[in-house]
Structure formats: C-alpha cells, structure tokens
Amino acid sequence: MSADELKGFLATAVALAKEVGPAFKDGFWRKGQFANADDFAVEGKKGNAADCVTAVDCHIERVLFSRLRSIYPHHKFVGEETTAECGDAAITDDPTWIVDPVDGTNNFVHHHHFTGVSIGLAIDKQPVVGVVYLPILDELYTGIRGQGSFLNGQRLPLVGPLTTPTSLAQCMMVSEHGSSHDETMHSRMRSLTRLLLAKEHGGAGLESLRFAGAATSDMSLIAKGVAEVHWEIGLHAWDIAAASVIVTESGGAVFDGSGWWGLPEGEREPQPLNIWNRKIVSVRYIPDLPGQPGSGRELQIQLAKELLSVVEDIPCTPDGLH
Ligand code: IPD
Fold first, then answer.
1. Which of 20, 34, 163, 212 could form a disulfide with 114 if both were Cys (CB 3.0 to 4.6 A apart)?
2. Which of 137, 135, 141, 139 is CA-nearest to residue 24?
3. 117 SS3 class
C-alpha cells in the first residue's frame, strides 16, 4: 500500500468521524435526534450493566459501515456492535475497518467527556491508519503508519520537553478495570495493588494511577506524553486498533500485555502487540538524551518489563475465536 493510498484512507476516516460528530454530541447531551429517553435507551450486553450499548452506538456504527461499504466494497469490516450481535469477527489479511462507534460508552451514558469514536484500518492484520475523535473535547487524533500522528493537526507527542522515566516510580499509569466484573477482577486488583505498593512493601512503587474510562482516551494520553504507561487485559481490537497507530507514530511503544507474575523466573522480552489478543501495554515516547541509562527504546522496554513482571495474566478468548 503506497503512502498516498494510506493518506486517502485516513482522509475518508477523518471525514466520517466528523460526519458522525453531531449525532455523537446529540446523544451525549440527549438533544436533537436523541432528545427522547426512549430513543436513547441503554442496554447492558448479556445483562451486564457495565458493558452497555445505546441507540447512539448502533446509529453511528450503521452510518460508518454503510459509508465505508459504499466507498470500499471489497474491504472487510469489524465493529463493536455488529460483532457483539453476530458473535464473531472476520479476521483476514484483507484491508479491514475496525470501528468502535462509542468507545467509553459507560462514560458517555454518565456525561463524562472521555468518550469518542474510533476508526482503524488494518492490512495484513496490522493496524496502519487510525482516527480517534473525542467530540466533547474537540480532539481529533490521527495517525498513519510511517507518517506520524497528530492531535488537531499538531504533531504528537505534544507535551515537552519530555523527561526520561527510568522506572515505574517516575510513571503515571493509565489503566481500566474492564467491563466484565467477573472473578478475574480479583486478579486485576491484585495486579494494580502490586504495582502501586511501595518497593519496601514488595510492590513496584508506581508513582500514580488514573482511569480515564475508555481505552482510546487512555492511549491518547500516552500519545500526548501526559501519562507514561498503560496496561489493560480484556479489551478488543476495536478499542485499540486506531489508537495503537496513534501511539506508535507518536514515538510510543505498544506490546502484548500478558502478565508474567507467578511464571518461573527467566529472561523475558515484551512481545509485539497483537491487536486481536486483547492484552496491551503502551509506553509513551522517551527521548534519547545524553547521560540517560539507555536509549529511549531500551527504556520503553525496561518499563514494560517492570510492569509485566508484577501483573497477572488473565486468560481471554482472542477476537475472532468466539
Ligand atoms: C470499553 C472501554 C473501557 C475498557 C473496556 C472497553 P466500550 O469500550 O474502552 O475503558 O475497559 O475494556 O470494552 O465498550 O465502552 O466501547
């Protein structure tokens, strides 16, 4: 795929994100076409109130897919709501649009501003184009593999000059407890506790922890350079496909998020992210500064290792294998 073809895909995704912006805002403020409570109606998927869907999610996904299908009839499509309904995601090497119409639906329902539209394009199963649009904050994040990432046209990362974190003790982490409030919550909470506990109490001594409530928002904080590390297990390709391009193109790094806690000691390296495997670690851009103990890339790997060595793994069925 040429650089110009990728630019064309990005332009389409940006135009579509902007097109659905007004419906997103109407739903968020319960006005216009979503002024009636009945039109808005929130449902918990499979009876789980934390994993919810609204009429706005379904409306936006329908609009995005019908536009994309008419422009790219030979491409494939994976969307949170369609896939949740049909119970499967078709994963092939073909160009595949991966869409979350409302990431952070729970935030959206509560009028919490960290919520947005995510449109990613994967080719050969690798994300190459990403658009994350947070309409309430008026933030449009874009990225193309090999061509950088931007927030409202300004190159990422935004925050500077960035410091060099050499351990989790200097890191703000963003994470989520996830929407499946099942018995795996014990493992998630044990992992977060272990991360936060001071070193003298046997923990990793993480400096601070934040929950934005939406994977795309978490990852936009990494791409901006606001937060240093991000970890979540249990999310889906539509939560991270677009944002992973935006993070890596900001100079950040993304890895597989399977935890190593409790596994036999040994030399381990963080593995590349597979967006379909539902486990992620992201680390923000770290500059190469004179006198620091390693290159920016080496320090990103070191932080990912430090994190993975204290978090537990949680088995998840990969997307596409339901
Ligand atoms: C969810 C959000 C949440 C994350 C869940 C996702 P949704 O997406 O990103 O932060 O913890 O894993 O499923 O369902 O609101 O689009």
1. 212
2. 135
3. strand
Distance CA 106, CA 17 (A): 20
Cβ–Cβ < 8 Å for 77, 97? yes
The pLDDT, as a whole number, for residue 44 is 79
For ligand 1, the distance from its centroid to the CA atom of residue 239, given in whole angstroms, is 7
Here the tokens at position 318 are 């990969």
pTM of the entire structure? 0.95
Contact 92, 75 (CB under 8 A): no
The two three-digit tokens of residue 59, written as one number: 């409306």
Alpha-carbon dihedral angle through residues 275, 276, 277, 281, given to the nearest 10 degrees = 10
The pLDDT of residue 179 is above 90: no
Query: What six digits make up the tokens of 73?
Result: 């009839």
- With contact defined as beta carbons under 8 Å apart, do 207 and 165 qualify? no
Q: 3-state class of 40 per DSSP?
A: helix
Residue, of 44 and 99, whose pLDDT is higher: 99
The minimum-distance atom of ligand 1 relative to the CA of 52 is 14
Q: How far is the CA of 28 from the centre of ligand 1 (A)?
A: 17
Structural domains in the chain? 3-155 (3.30.540.10), 168-308 (3.40.190.80)
**Cα(11)–Cα(109) distance, rounded to whole angstroms?**
29
β 172-175/208-210 pair status: parallel
Closest atom, ligand 1, to C-alpha of 102: 16
Residue 86 pLDDT class (50, 70, 90 cuts): low
